[in-house]
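I'll show an entry:

:::
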Amino acid sequence: MVFQDPFGSLNPRMTVGEAVAEPMLVHGLAKTNGEKTAELFRIVGLNPEMLDRYAQEFSGGQRQRIGIARSLAAQPNFIVCDEPVSALDVSKIVNLFEALRDRLGLTYVFIAHVSGSGPALE
């Protein structure tokens, strides 16, 4: 899952490298996960040298990329995305999702909440 609030979905006491590696450890996908975690960072457009930093050291867009890397750690075929572009640079994140779809053969479900004063659905 990719959450709407990437900061709220990351444990502030864990480095982002630990957070991305956690699903691999939980699912028994990697005994030594350093290189796999670095590769996930590269895939989402982040520098692997940043793995030892904490979530609060990143911008909102970078945090969302960390959340996307974390969702990829368990090697899914299907990812649920709860408003993954709210308050971010929409085109960059959407382009990343498209590239990941093409590269990894992923399927997504995007959840969007509609608000405003448009006509009511009947």
Notes: DSSP finds four helices and two strands in the chain. The two ends are 31 Å apart (CA to CA). Helices lie at 16-26, 34-43, 60-72, 90-104.
